[in-house]
Amino acid sequence: MSGAEVAIEWNGRPARAWLPDPLAARNLDLPVDIARKSERAAGAVLRVGDRLPSGWEPLARLLLRAEGIASAELDDAAATREAALVADNLAVVTDALAHARTTARLSVDDLHGWHTRLMRNSDLAPRLVGAFRDAQGWIGGRGPQDAVYVPPPPDRVPPLMDDLVTFVNSTDADAVTQAAVSHAQFETIHPYGDGNGRIGRLVVLWTLARRLDVPVPPPTSVLIARDPGGYLSGLYWFRSGELARWVAWFADIVSASSAAALEWSSEVETLMNEWRARIADLRTDAAARSILELLPAHPVITAGTAAQFVNTSDTSARAALELLHERGIVEPLEVADSGRGRPRNWWLAKQLAELIRT
């Protein structure tokens, strides 16, 4: 085993929680065949970085978020909320990727900052936004007594996270093994009141980007979402001490996501060519043409953002987005700002998002 159960009390009743061993105390040696599988997965990531077109890198931000973007069945209120969550996610992924390209070490404060941005439009209690949980959590069931999994007590979270961050900043393991172990340990600790899946995926993103020096790693979360049973079994293997089985499964996911990234990039380029044909009648200097090329980078975009990138006025950018809407390329959404003032106008390139949900 890679930890032990500890006694806790919840609502006056006894229960048991899992306390994982710190990574500093774990033996992370792998059999030769598993180590080679991890090395092959890292090689696949590097090959994707060499072969993908430049327009793919920003779109990969969407792939991190397995939940996708609002579907046509969502009502207006849900759609606007979803657009806000997607926009926040894109901003955090951008920050994580930028951070990975620096020499700065990952810190708990970085994780808290990402959590703050990700959860600011959620229903999570304000005291828990950007802070570790202060109460016992559990997964499944009505309480710790009948839960599927009970993470460590809240007072054990800070030292475990310090240990995790130290491991993430190390180079003792190969990149894919390090990403696999870091993610599994993070999910085992389950340090936040909500949003653990998204932050855990950011840890994978940061680790692969930092260690392999690629702009954006392939979309592992989309492939994980396709095999939830395998993922949950893998986390159980990790907790039960079967490290090799977990790393082997994770390495296969990384390899498969690398192949999927190449396939998706081809589909994105096909869609972009179709959209270019829809506006072929416009002047070559039309703002709509320039904004169209931004969409893989900014599938959720405001007129203000578009105006900055194409060096035009907000009014001109808004008119261009309206034109793209008329041509069936984007659709409008209204997302209220967190502060006072009128809502910001957002547009969504929905077909881009739908490509990676199938």
Description:
It is globular, with a radius of gyration of 22 Å. It is mainly alpha-helical and 358 residues long. It has helices at 32-51, 56-64, 76-100, 108-119, 157-168, 175-189, 196-212, 220-225, 228-239, 243-278, 287-294, 303-310, 314-326, 350-355, and strands at 3-10, 13-20, 300-302, 331-335, 344-348. Helices cover 56% and strands 8% of the residues. α1 packs parallel to α10 and α6 (175-189) runs antiparallel to α7 (196-212). The chain folds into 2 domains: 3-260, Fido-like domain (Fic-like fold); 279-355, Arc Repressor Mutant, subunit A, CATH 1.10.10.10. It has a 3-stranded antiparallel beta sheet with strand order 3-5-4, sandwiched between helices. A two-stranded antiparallel ribbon has the order 1-2. A hairpin with a 2-residue loop joins β1 (3-10) and β2. It contains 14 helices and 5 strands. It starts with a strand and ends with a helix.
Rg on CA atoms, Å: 22 Å
The tally of helices reads 14
The SSE order reads EEHHHHHHHHHHHEHHEEH
Report on the biggest sheet. 3 strands, antiparallel
The CATH homologous superfamily name of the largest domain equals Fido-like domain
Level-2 CATH architecture of the largest domain: Orthogonal Bundle
Strand arrangement within the widest β-sheet reads 3-5-4
| CATH topology category name of the largest domain | Fic-like fold
Q: How does the overall form come out from the CA principal axes?
A: globular
Structural class: mainly alpha
Overall CATH class of the largest domain: Mainly Alpha
Strand fraction? 5-15%
